[in-house]
Amino acid sequence: MKKITLLALFYTITFPAVSQSLGYQNLALLFSKENNSGTARFNAMSGAFGALGGDVSAIKINPAGAAIFKNSLSSITLNSRSTDITTVYYGNSNRTSNNYSNFSQTGAVSVFNAYSHSNWTKFAFSFNYSIRNDFRNRFVAFGNSNFTSFNEFPLDTADPKTQYNNAESQQYENIYKGELSEYNFAFSGVYQQDLYIGVAVNTFDLNFKQRSILSEQNNDGAGTVLNAAFYQENNTLGTGFSLSAGLIYKATKKLRLGFSYQTPIWFTKIDEETNIINNDGFFGDTEIQITGDNTIYDNTAGDYFPTQGFSYKLKTPAKTTASLAYVFGSNGLISIDYSYKNYTKMEFSDAGFTSENQFFENDLKNTHAINIGSEWRFNAFSLRGGYHYEQSSDKNAIESDNDKGYSFGAGYKFGNTKLDFSCQNSSYTALYDFYPQYNEVNAADLTIDNRIISVTVTFSL
Length: 461
Prior knowledge:
461 residues; mainly beta; Porin; 14-stranded antiparallel barrel; 3 helices; 5% helix; elongated
């Protein structure tokens, strides 16, 4: 697998090789990633709702699904996520555990019966908000590659300067914050009892923050150690939109077929502010000290923090979904979604991103995904389970880089209120290269394990 990762750092297209950050292509992959995030029922069945509908989060997959509802309702969901990121860097393994909670979903559906003597028997307006991608994470990698990138003390007045070419250790800490929020506005209807048709307008709010800290300890071979700390950070804000359309056809009383298409997300403006700018020869905030010397080199001394801002546009992959569901009356159901994403058509809308757009076309592949879900009802109580598998977009990915996992959950209905619970588990591997400008240094191996617990309260109106 090449030195790319679904977790992203970035650098501007004009940066020389002194930056340790990765490229814009990785940032685009991060902003294109979509998680199975919705109501607890949706999550428990791994999001396999393309031919089912009947869940407010299903309009993310197929906007025709809102017309399945018999009455109006609203819902709200609380998520609790635990993520373990294990890094292996030159034989040193480290696990970082993260725990986060948020209100991840809220939505409502309004159902209207059509006039009599019409081929259209019912209409539905629906709205759903969900966190498409929760960026919050942190990991630490450490070890010794026997490679030095900081080998001089800038305040050394000797000629020649002392060289600190003996590596003792490197440590890299990466912190992510923010989220990509999704808002779905859908309209759907039922034609001649068996055909459900829907369209949706989707808007997106992007808020991404990152801070990375690279530390090195190198010695001069005579017992003196140079300690260097290098900080890079950026803040990213953006907005985008997409369109989607779909249908569900009841082929028989038990068999349902679904099809939907989601256009790319067009991020019409992404604004970034970063400290990755040439400051005294360093592309980031830098502190360097020599053991036994109280003098500290600091290129941000005196509250001098240079930054730069810039804007760009991004088009993410489109998604096509074909679905099948078999409903066993009031006893239960099985549902399968197959999805296809065209990653090779991703694009930055700027002539300065020629190499990144070529990377999408030459080094990525279009991907396949399978989501399977099942639900079994016992009067007011329901049991659910699911499985998902999504290919990595990297042409050279190994099997463990594919995102896969399982889910389960339960629900109970009392009166006009439903309480649902779900648990999702998923894992995949990736490489993270925090010295991408140096081929002499290997990337760190990452294993990302996610566990998400969701609770949803639904009120029928």
